[in-house]
Specification:
This is MADF domain-containing protein. The chain is about 70% helix and about 0% strand. It has 5 helices and no strands.
């Protein structure tokens, strides 16, 4: 419950009337919006389209949550990245997050 209190306090900085229920609703909304964008990106990569045709998300927090969701995907699949170097350079921030997560996982084990 302490974590919800901290999140509520942070939300109250921009929405003074926010309570824990509003905080949970806000987080669920952000999570759902992220999942929609994540699915669009993933589906656009599966179509075999070029790097220029891959969906570009417009959520400001997309790159912040991406390592969490990529961790889940990386654990469930093995494969070869077939994206062009243009897409790789655009996603270098994502790669840095993945590497940090992998490093943390190795240190845990």
């Amino acid at each position: 419950m302490q974590a919800w209190e901290l999140l509520k306090d942070k939300l109250q900085e921009i929405e003074p009337e926010a309570n824990i229920a509003a905080t949970k609703k806000k987080i669920e909304h952000m999570r759902s919006a992220f999942k929609r964008e994540y699915k669009k990106v993933k589906e656009s990569k599966r179509t075999g389209a070029g790097a220029n045709d891959v969906h570009v998300p417009n959520l400001w927090y997309y790159n912040l949550l991406l390592p969490i969701f990529n961790k889940k995907d990386e654990q469930s699949r093995c494969g070869v990245d077939t994206l062009s170097s243009d897409e790789e350079s655009r996603s270098s921030e994502h790669e840095k997050g993945r590497k940090k997560l992998n490093t943390l996982q190795i240190k845990k084990n």
